[in-house]
From TrEMBL:
A family per Pfam: ABC-3
Gene Ontology biological process: response to zinc ion; transmembrane transport
Record field: transmembrane: 6-27, 34-52, 58-78, 90-109, 142-161, 173-196, 202-222, 229-251, 257-280
InterPro entries per record: ABC_BtuC-like (IPR037294), ABC_TroCD (IPR001626)
GO cellular component assignments: ATP-binding cassette (ABC) transporter complex
Topology within the bilayer: Multi-pass membrane protein
Organism field: Alteribacillus iranensis
KW Transmembrane helix (keyword) present: yes
Entry-linked CDD domains: TM_ABC_iron-siderophores_like (cd06550)
Sequence similarity: Belongs to the ABC-3 integral membrane protein family.
Highest rank taxon of the organism: Bacteria
Protein name as it appears in the record: Manganese/zinc/iron transport system permease protein
């Protein structure tokens, strides 16, 4: 497998995992939670490094997941105190991220851990850090981790598809049917945390946020059916990864930034051209109704 192919495959795995999870974030009106968790995992990574003095492995993963779950808990707690949900997310995300930045500046020292790496990732280095898996052989460690993450995300989406659907559209109905809404909420936040953490080191916070929100928002414009929305969102994530890589190679710039930019271009196309909620189709339907109204009056 070539150097470029590993980068594209790894980014595509990020696009798939984040695309699937992002659909439920959009439906639950929790898009900003993606931004919050993608930044607050930095605090978990820094604390894990301060405790273990290692920049990779299980401690980093565990620390980041705990930080993500802590973010979800604090947001839910503040919201229960009658603070608006988006305000709660903003308070928690900025505070925990700021603590992480302060710890990097004052306590981490000369370790290769900085805010630039946290925001933009190191996707160009992915093919060099490899592991050997049975039956598969030698592959990049980030690719293996993201492949496992995608499997976990798909497993829980399929296993609890009915529960995710009901709790996303009508939590009150879900509670009346005996579905544990709060448990499903924290399970979902756990999936968001795992997906964010797995993607964080490879592509950075900017692309994680872009892939969690933009492909799902684009898919939302094309269909009202959840199953189709999931497929479209994952597909848009993969297309953004592939197109972004070639844009970066063309103009010699950040790969992660270009992938986020490509996802934005897809959203613009969807916003304009979607036959269901697109601006042009909405305008045509509105004009057709006006013409029909004038014809009937005449």
């Amino acid at each position: 497998m070539t150097y470029s192919a590993w980068i594209i495959i790894t980014a595509s795995l990020v696009g798939l995992s984040c695309g699937f999870i992002g659909v439920f974030l959009i439906l639950r009106k929790m898009a900003m939670m993606a931004d919050a968790i993608s930044h607050t995992v930095l605090l978990g990574i820094v604390l894990a490094f301060l405790i273990t003095e290692k920049l990779s492995g299980a401690p980093m993963l565990i620390g980041a997941i705990i930080a993500g779950l802590l973010t979800a808990f604090l947001v839910q707690w503040l919201h229960s105190l009658d603070i608006q949900l988006h305000a709660s997310m903003g308070i928690v995300f900025t505070t925990l991220f700021a603590i992480g930045v302060i710890l990097i500046a004052t306590s981490v020292g000369n370790a290769h851990l900085d805010v630039q790496h946290a925001l933009m990732g190191e996707i160009t280095f992915i093919p060099w850090n490899t592991i050997t898996l049975p039956l598969i052989g030698q592959i990049p460690q980030a690719t293996a981790l993201l492949g496992a993450t995608l499997f976990v995300v798909l497993f829980f989406i399929v296993a609890f598809y009915k529960e995710w659907k009901i709790t996303s559209f009508d939590p009150a109905l879900a509670a009346s049917l005996g579905i544990p809404v709060l448990l499903m909420h924290y399970l979902f936040m756990g999936l968001v945390s795992i997906t964010t953490v797995a993607s964080f080191d490879a592509v950075g916070a900017i692309m994680v946020v872009a892939m969690l929100i933009t492909p799902a928002a684009s898919a939302y414009l094309w269909t009202d059916r959840l199953s189709y929305m999931l497929i479209l969102s994952g597909g848009f994530g993969v297309i953004s990864a592939i197109a972004g890589y070639f844009i970066a190679a063309w103009i010699d710039t950040s790969i992660s930034g270009s992938m986020a930019f490509a996802s934005g271009l897809l959203f613009i196309v969807s916003f304009l051209c979607s036959p269901l909620h697109g601006l042009l189709s909405t305008y045509r339907r509105s004009r057709h109704r006006k013409l029909s109204s004038h014809t009937e009056k005449a």
